Every structure is written in C-alpha cells, then in structure tokens.
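re: ur question from yesterday

yeah so i grabbed the chain u mentioned. its 150 aa long if i counted rite. heres the sequnce exactly as i have it in my notes:
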Amino acid sequence: MEERLTRNAARNIFYGSTAVCLTIFVALVAQSHWYMVNSSTAKSPLTESVAEGKRIWTERACANCHTILGEGSYFAPELGNVWLRYGGDTDAQAARDGLKGWFQAQPSGVEGRRQMPQFHLSDQEMDEVIDFLKWTSEINTQSWPPNLAG
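ran it thru and got these structure tokens back, copy pasting raw so excuse formatting
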C-alpha cells in the first residue's frame, strides 16, 4: 500500500508546526519581558541625572574610544564596571572623587600611553556622567565583563 502526503495531512502539518512555533515565540517574548521587568535595571530607575550623563556620553562620543558593557570601541578601557574599580560599592564618595580627579587630570601626558582628551566638563556634568557610570555598573550583566579590570 502506497502512502502519500495528502492535502489534508499537509495542511495539518502546516497548522500544527505554526502553532508550535508561535507558542515558542510567545513564551520567549514573555520570558524576555519578565527578565527585563525583574532585572536590576528596573531596580535602578533612570533619573534625570543618569539621562543627562548618557546624553553627555553620546555628545562627547565616548563610545568612539571606550566600551560600555561590551559595546563601543576597544581603544580605551571598558567602563561598564569603572564604578566598582574605583570602589563605589564600598565608598561612593571616594569613587566619585577619584573619577572626578581622573577627568580633570586628562590628558595625563604619560609618554607611550593612550591619552584621553580634556573635555572641560563642569562639576555638574562630571556628576551626571558619574551617575550614568554608576547606574551602568548596577545592571545585571550576568557576570560581564568577566573580570574587574574590564
């Protein structure tokens, strides 16, 4: 007895596989939405200062040299965890002062090192960029970057 794929069988396979794929798609969208709602980003709300820091980051083209969470250029260090490198998790004021000092000391003039330009940021602008970097360090990156040095 010869069996062939009938029109009804083909239709049933099409509808069945479409339903399975659609169910998987909806489940993945729901899981992504749940993850975003319950991630640490939602626990660290975007403030006006963080948004202004991001605006300064974009206007000054910091991503042309630095990466942040792996996105950007690899000329200069990763800044997704710079807040932690400066000890922001233990002493926020010391980290803030250290980052401000770094901004103000550029370019360092050390021979043979890459030089960060002097952007002449005001105290408020430095605070906003630092708030953006602090907010970035609080994102649940699932252990990225793999080490504190970036």
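noticed a couple things. The beta strands are 67-68, 71-72. also The CA atoms of residues 76 and 112 lie 14 Å apart.
anyway ttyl
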